[in-house]
């Protein structure tokens, strides 16, 4: 059970609110991006190729890193929630 001296709702909300920040920070660290580069890479359309189709904004290596970071963030979330629930 949660400690009676803490606000469990605020603690839980804080964990969930941290997820997008953690994901962005880890992607920037792992891919050596600045924050503006992260948001630029998030755009759906980066460029048009010669036959007028959309090209991807992410390389295959960046896509792989994104999956690895997602797993890392998921594990962080699981551990954080377990700590809150068992506190």
Automatic annotation (TrEMBL):
Name listed for the protein in its UniProt record: Uncharacterized protein
Organism field: Chitinophaga oryzae
């Amino acid at each position: 059970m949660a400690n009676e001296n803490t606000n469990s709702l605020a603690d839980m909300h804080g964990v969930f609110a941290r997820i997008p920040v953690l994901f962005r920070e880890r992607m920037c660290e792992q891919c050596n991006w600045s924050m503006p580069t992260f948001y630029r890479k998030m755009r759906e359309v980066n460029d048009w190729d010669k036959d007028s189709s959309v090209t991807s904004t992410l390389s295959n290596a960046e896509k792989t890193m994104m999956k690895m970071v997602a797993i890392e963030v998921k594990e962080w979330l699981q551990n954080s929630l377990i700590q809150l629930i068992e506190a």
